[in-house]
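A common beginner's mistake is to predict each chain separately and then try to dock the pieces by hand. The better habit, illustrated here, is to supply every component at once so that their relative placement is modeled jointly.
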Amino acid sequence: MPQLISSKDMDFLLNTVFNAEELCQLPAYQEHDRTTFDSVLTTAERIATDYFLPHNAKADANEPQFDGERVSTIPEVKTAWQHFADSGLLSARHSYEDGGMQLPALVHSACMAYFTAANPSTAGYPFLTMAAANLINAFGNDEQKSRYLPAMFDGRSAGTMALTEPDVGSSLGDLTTKAIPHEDGSYRIKGQKMYISGGDQDITSNIIHLVIARIQGAPQGVKGISLFLVPKFITNEAGEPIQRNDVQLAGLLHKMGYRGTTSTVLSFGEKDDCHGYLIGEAGRGLSYMFKMMNEARIGVGLGAAVIGYRGYMESLDYARNRPQGRRPDEKDPQSKQINIIEHADVRRMLLAQKSYVEGSLALCMLAARLVDEHEAGGDEDSGRLLDLLTPVVKSFPSFYGPRANDLAIQVLGGAGYTREYPVEQCYRDNRLNPIHEGTHGIQSLDLLGRKLWQENGAGQKLLLKRIQKTMHAAGKHSELVELVGVYQKHINTLMQTTLALGSALQSGKLKEGLANSALYLDMMGKCIIAWLWLDMAEKAISTFASSESKEDTDFMAGKIQAARYFILWELPEVEHQAHLLTSFDRTCLDMQDNWF
Amino acid sequence: MPQLISSKDMDFLLNTVFNAEELCQLPAYQEHDRTTFDSVLTTAERIATDYFLPHNAKADANEPQFDGERVSTIPEVKTAWQHFADSGLLSARHSYEDGGMQLPALVHSACMAYFTAANPSTAGYPFLTMAAANLINAFGNDEQKSRYLPAMFDGRSAGTMALTEPDVGSSLGDLTTKAIPHEDGSYRIKGQKMYISGGDQDITSNIIHLVIARIQGAPQGVKGISLFLVPKFITNEAGEPIQRNDVQLAGLLHKMGYRGTTSTVLSFGEKDDCHGYLIGEAGRGLSYMFKMMNEARIGVGLGAAVIGYRGYMESLDYARNRPQGRRPDEKDPQSKQINIIEHADVRRMLLAQKSYVEGSLALCMLAARLVDEHEAGGDEDSGRLLDLLTPVVKSFPSFYGPRANDLAIQVLGGAGYTREYPVEQCYRDNRLNPIHEGTHGIQSLDLLGRKLWQENGAGQKLLLKRIQKTMHAAGKHSELVELVGVYQKHINTLMQTTLALGSALQSGKLKEGLANSALYLDMMGKCIIAWLWLDMAEKAISTFASSESKEDTDFMAGKIQAARYFILWELPEVEHQAHLLTSFDRTCLDMQDNWF
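With all components supplied together, the output reads:
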């Protein structure tokens, strides 16, 4: 069986490209070293392989059931959850005093990569729980933290994020769930939420929902939104569940993939007795949620990258072992068939996958490192760069990860289309990622309408500085000179395009400037991934060029070739996109409803 | 509920773009007129809507089951099959004397479009049966025709196409199934076939398998392959099943989509008593099969186009009725939300779908018309053009139909990812089409390695002549002048690329010339679809510009805008593809197994 993620590649990313050990210079991480990182990573890979992977297909084929009273999931999910909790990973990012291990986000993301690669559905439960716990930790008061966090750290409670309503998806400002102040200082929540992942299950003894709602009398729009903690079971002060709260599962939704994670419709306050507790200040709910959503967006990007990666590893393994056909210049039908990896078109499909998924994983790990630099290192510039990159971190892997999975199926042919092989499930699972935590459309508006221009474009400048540094380093290697030249041309195009769009937006042409934002998001994504490929190729050469191990030089050659592929085959598409953007093409804007 | 296929669009394609009535000038079709065409089309749409559509999701959720003895499918499939058979469509393409209706391929394809749009899985059974019957009719002897065809025409027997083996997929020349001559003049078949759609079922009382196998002692490679008729039940002279033949269902395969069609592993001759009957001459099996496969390839293209079309209609309907969000320049949170079709990015996703699926449907109907011109009209040039186009007819819709379905999901957002809406099934069903009847890789080699150069490039010249005619006509309309100019540039690029590749191949550089063939296939596809868009826009203007009906002028405006979208947004990507092709880029060719 192929690896979930190439261990050589993970080692390269963590230790060479993103130099995890360097983070140990930060006070928060000073008790760590490469040994502790390796050890937690090994544990994660082992638990993922032993307890998450084996039931991935089974959980897909046996979805959670709801009998009108209770949800039931296959027992393997609970076992996997318990192993995850016992490993300490649920609280690993938190401080020693809170019972955590002060693990850098970079290393923690690397750990999480294994779980999602092994089983995206089951990994969804800890992902959501950690995100919810982070939010409570950041904005909850001491009483809330001490009451709810211990159980979320040791696996007794799970967490959810309850934003969407049946009539409110992307436009969160329009939500209608109400919070009615109660004399005891808490609130009574009333409304319905939809597409809530993990909204009910039989894995944990309690579930902590983080719900956004509007306090009675609060203004319309985003400024009237507050954040509430709504437990499935009301707890005593020690956090032990003592009484069922008035939040009911109205039904399960049935998804194309991610079938092992419940997707729920939840009714809050059908009996007017749903207790909710305000987190932080009233009216700031959405800004709190966005903290969680930004982390969730990195998590979605990472998930999309590694589901893509999993399919790549499976299709590579298949291509290496499946004999079929002969070279175009081989005419003898008696000659031995070649393995399909020898066909140029199969290599194209594998190389494209490699460039998408390894590039995407690098991007997500960069984002995680920026979290560390910003949060543990106090580096505001890293925070600014992270802010700019977040829409791309969410969307590039979510777009190209499924493309990689599509190619993985194609490499397997008819076999790839059957559930007897794992790549079709990857394809279905990964299709969720371009949707949740903000669609591409939303991300592209966030990038082009907001992030690019914050603090006078500070993020842009930081990004360009890093890119220039990479180009300079890469330009010193003869293998990369051509690629640096090609890259230079296209990054210039990106800059000119950004300028043109910025002027239009500044002069108030909002509609025209934003109409083709999806193109800009893709263009920016390609330029960033191509930059990371230059960086990876440069670092591979610097590290391995003089190695005497063939494994090392092969690895290096692969990185160079994937950089070639991405920069020569994919990146140049930005020129056409730039043309449409800078000419403010009106084709989509002018299209009329009646014309369809 | 939205229509399966826009009836105005179907009418436009059939009667304006491809002028079905003109075919009635051919002797074979002279008893038809527009009224008979309309009548058969109305019947097809009605049966598709009443008997195929209602169980589409049910058949997907309730796959055929195999208990080790028998297969069972949900009863609705048999009912639908019976209605299809009773309509006369199974034999509609055949002559009056054979009990058919001498219906043109163009009109028949239009009929079939409704069935696949409604329910691809159930439509698979008649598709396969008609293809098998065509083959028997073309190459079988009189005894075979009179014994087997009547039951295939009235629905008592279904047909299959048994090519693939567990170790033999695309490389058919390597097949190992044996045919041993028997003293009674028939053969005994021995071997295993895989991925045989409809290989067993409980819908018809007999199944006629068309099996390729190697007669004992025949040469290796494709020249040793013969075609056999192998019935599930051996029949008497009247074609009635009298005795079980030695062909057994070894198991069912479980697919991502098309779940309602059985996909089977079949064992022939486990007891050394599988009777098979040679069709035509020994050693010519593959060339016969290719006749059927070419029709099957058009059928696959059509299926991919209309599954894409179905998703488009569903997402258009959703976008028109789902309020969410506001315009970028609307700041008042109290203002009414707009329907999502008003967002430029949603329009982009709908316009892209429209351009892919209406373009693909037009291409398939062009292919069907060429079949009529060639077979009923005896026009050899039409046959040459069809030969050239077939790889594109198979692959463009199969590539862009799923892309359309992907966009349809994206338009619906979270809802689109659930099985509560039909678009996710479209996405899964359509993923088969880039694989079966020859992958893109295979099609691209067929196009670039063979079809382009047949008879000194006669097909190319015919295509260019038609394209020039369209450009000339379109250039007369002010609305299209800009598009004709853009098109001219890109078609020139295609011609130059074709020349460069042709020279390389002629000078023996097979490996280099064919390495990036997938790019060429896509490039050619884009140029052909863009041509059809020019043609459709031109004919829409000619027909509707002076209409006083707003419905007509809206329809015309939509065609012009979709042509704009495809030509300005999608077509220009060929420039970059041409650059890679004409520079004989070696990135994929040079990649090594060990470097992955």
